[in-house]
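Recall the central idea of this unit: under ordinary conditions, the amino acid sequence of a chain determines the structure it adopts. In this exercise we apply that idea directly, starting from the sequence alone.
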Amino acid sequence: MRWDAQRLDLDEPTTLPGLPDVRGLLRSVQVPEFPGLTFHEVRAKSALNAVPKDSAMPFGHTINPYRGCSHACVYCFARGTHEWLELDSGADFDQQIVVKTNLVDVLRRELARPSWKREHVALGTNTDPYQRAEGRYRLMPGVVDALARSGTPFSILTKGTLARRDVPLLAAASRDVPIGMGVSLAIWDDGLHTALEPGVPTPRARLDLVRAITDAGLPCGVFLAPVLPGLTDSREHLATAIGAIAAAGATGVTVVPLHLRPGAREWFTSWLAREHPGLVGRYRQLYGRGAYVPAEYRGWLAGRVAPLLAEHGLDRAGGGAARGIDGSLGLPGDSAASFPAGSLPDRTPTTPVAREEPEQLSLC
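Accordingly, the structure predicted from this sequence is:
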């Protein structure tokens, strides 16, 4: 075919027939290190995605190195986006991962344009940039370097402990540009974690990531999300979670109830009916009118966590309000929630403390 010469490794025996509906496809590949995953390597035409002007997001652009996510979170709000590729929002989202192999080169060109205004760029707003594919393709070091060298502030939201590999690079970048860091976690029961987040590092591993980030002098806000009605919204569960997050040194916490967009809704409710049939009626009541819980539940949850946040000194203003930004600016997928302190770039770059180079973590 005309693009055969552009393939990264034409003779690799694990190369598979590609998906014709994926634009810029070079090849599809499976490798022994990542059983069950198929990587569709593409050449992207752009790296920066403009956020609609009327969006509630406190950033103007995003970067998504990967589409689909091997974290395989049953509740992930981004599942529906895989249908744009004519892949399904269930198993395909978990296992068919699109990789923008030329992302760093394209990004450097876009950041060098005279028209680029060095606006805040967010990563991790759709799928995780530190999912397992990053261990093979190593796109994020180049992304971080390109953003820092261009003077572009940025933020990263992740569940992937592979981010620990790049903490020294992020600390160095923070001397040049403002950086925000966010880690997402919510489930503390081992069985529930395994069932709902089978590809995600353990909560303890993610708390260790928070500590590594803050030990490097970087801020790190935690998204206690999603809170699952009837499963993780007990006072005991929330108290344990918030106490552990505070002990890890988080600079802020935002508590976000589950929302069920199309794609995620079908996948999650199938799991719920199979694993917790007694809760199906409650979820129908809570989510019968749309993707979000009613205001009454959100208010009840806020009242439950408020004293816990105050107890640990985590009740200060959220990320946006702390920077003089309208505190109503919402999270990706939930415009009613705000960013935790530390998860958005501050106006003044932080000064990281010296630390030894950490050992690279094994992939989870």
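The chain has a mean pLDDT of 86.
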